[in-house]
Write a structure and sequence with these properties.
118 residues; 4 helices
Length: 118
């Protein structure tokens, strides 16, 4: 997230300091880079939300497993199945990845727009 934010933000700053940017479709490039900044921030937000939603259930399963190791009483199979299910690829995990990919795509398109007008 930080790399995408810095790359898109740096590109915006670079274009704002370029005196001939308006002659080379710089406004369109700034739009793409700004969208990339927004998507990188969304990626961070979605990552935090996904982490917060999964911390408690995973911690509860780990506590049950740790208790089983100490007491030598094996918990129900459901505890293990829940832990495995929490680590599967779901919408909670692919939304941050997709927003990060969109931010990268905005960076690439913005660079292409600027380079095609030079």
């Amino acid at each position: 997230m930080a790399t995408l934010f810095a790359a898109n933000g740096g590109a915006i700053i670079g274009l704002l300091g370029w005196t001939d940017a308006s002659k080379h479709d710089g406004d369109s490039g700034i739009g793409w880079f700004a969208a990339g900044v927004v998507f990188s921030m969304l990626m961070g937000t979605f990552s935090i939300m996904a982490a917060l939603l999964s911390i408690k259930p995973i911690e509860q399963a780990r506590v049950a497993i740790d208790q089983a190791l100490v007491t030598r009483i094996i918990p129900e199979k459901q505890v293990f199945d829940d832990l495995v299910a929490r680590n599967r690829w779901t919408w909670k995990t692919w939304i941050p990845s997709c927003t990060g990919g969109t931010s990268l795509l905005c960076l690439i398109v913005g660079m292409f727009v600027i380079s095609s007008h030079l």
